[in-house]
Structures are given as C-alpha cells and as structure tokens.
Amino acid sequence: MIEVKKIEKSFPDQKVLKGVNLRIRDGELMAIIGRSGGGKSVLLKTITGLMKPDSGSVIIDGADITKVRGRELDAIRGKIGVLFQGGALFDSLTTFENIAFPLEERTKLGKADIHARVVLALEDVGLSGMEHKYPSELSGGMRKRVALARTLVVEPKVVFFDEPTTGLDPILLHTTHNLIRETQKKYGYTGIIISHEIPEIFDIVDRVAFLHEGTIRAVGAPEEMLSTSDPVVWAFLSGNVDADAILCKTDSQVCRMRKEGRKL
C-alpha cells in the first residue's frame, strides 16, 4: 500500500531524514518508533504529502505523491485519514458536526446519509448518544474517540496516527489502543502509528519500524524487535541512554566509525 524510497529531508540547521526506505503492506498496522526529535513526525508529514521531501519518492496505492499535483494529488489525499495528536476538533461545532464536517466538504451525500454514517461512526467508537456535546464537554479520552470517528467516517484506505494516546492515563491508553485495532479490523485500513508508548504499542501492531539517525535501522514483528541482537535497538527499547557505549562494547569497528564521525 505504501512504499517510501530514499526519502531525504533537511532544514537549514539539520538533516532530518537521510535516505529512508520503508514498505507498509496493504491492511497492516505498523508502528514507527524512535527518539523524540528524531524525525518521526517529519516522516509522517512527508508520507501524507503535507511536506515535500528534498529527494526520494512516496508511493501510495500505486501513485507517487511527490510527483503528482492538483486533482490527482487530491484524489490520493482523499484515500488518507489523519488522527492528529491533539485531535484537532472544532471547538465551536458539536460532536455530530465535527464528524459530519469531512462528509459535507468532500462528498455529495445527502443529509440523511450523512446522519446515518455519523451515527454509525459514533457507535464504532463507543460514543452513541453524544452527538450534541461540544468538545469542551467531553473528557480527553472522549475527544480522542470523536477525532477517530471523524477520521473513519470517510472510510479512508490509509490512516496515520500521530501519537494518538498522548496525555492519556494507562487505562485510557490501553482502551484507545484496543479501539484502534478493533476499527482497523472492521474498516480494513492500512495504519501507521507514531508512538512513544513502548512496549504497549507492540500489543496491537503487526510490525514495528525503528527510525534512528535519519534512517530506518530495523523493521520487524514486535516479538522480533523485543528479541533483537542489534545493540542500538536494544538500547532504545530498554531505555539505556548510552547506546554509544553499548556499540563500542559489542562492535569495535562500529565504535571506531562512530568516533571518526562516519555513517554506520
């Protein structure tokens, strides 16, 4: 469904992505993990077409979004849903109006059909009967659910989750993760989750990609990542801040390259 090829992205003071390669299979749920400030959100914005890469390509459902423009790009974006970290709900709109908004803007559905789809979307996220509530009247967890319902109501083929459980307590975190997995199974979308919730995120995803120093260092099933022999991956997952020391203990050649400032 998604193929990222040799993506590079720099800013005036930093090169963030240094040749990222990644393939996400149709219908799978993948987590992208890595250090804070390591480029995960930049990669997500590049894949969604919100940010143009310096070089490389991003192919979604057979089309390279780095090369298309106008209606062709809009058509690709129409297949994509994004759940932003804060939910990005409209404070002045009710729950119903928030969820109905993309249907009114992007489709030609009549009022009856829109109403039916909004009601169904609310049922799918466990918020039936909350149609007339405003975001300020909802808890943080409920607002996340409304945002998820708004994302799913247009039935996207691909959904991107930008740290969807930020600010939630452990119980709501677990509930939200399960809800993502349940809706993914029901709707069949391909999902990418940017997350710092380790190892909790491993319980719901099919595969994990580890972004390190601007490249994808490792990709594998959760159990493969947890049993990795890669010292850098292990250092990150275990919370060991001194990955360089681990590298030097396990691989003298890598240690030498690191000290010389050469790319691994």
Q: Brief description of this entry?
A:
39% of the residues lie in helices and 23% in strands. With 264 residues, it is α/β, with parallel strands linked by helices. The two termini are 29 Å apart.
Description:
By secondary structure, this protein is α/β, with parallel strands linked by helices. Helices cover 39% and strands 23% of the residues. It is built from 10 helices and 10 strands. It has helices at 40-48, 70-77, 95-106, 111-124, 140-152, 170-187, 222-226, 231-238, 243-250, 252-259; strands at residues 2-11, 14-24, 29-33, 55-60, 63-64, 80-83, 158-162, 190-194, 207-212, 215-220. A 6-stranded mixed beta sheet has the order 6-7-8-3-9-10, sandwiched between helices. Strands 2-1-4-5 form a 4-stranded antiparallel beta sheet, with helices on one face. Helix 3 (95-106) runs parallel beside helix 5 (140-152). It is globular.
Brief descriptors of the model:
about 260 residues, alpha/beta, 6-stranded mixed sheet, 4-stranded antiparallel sheet, 10 strands
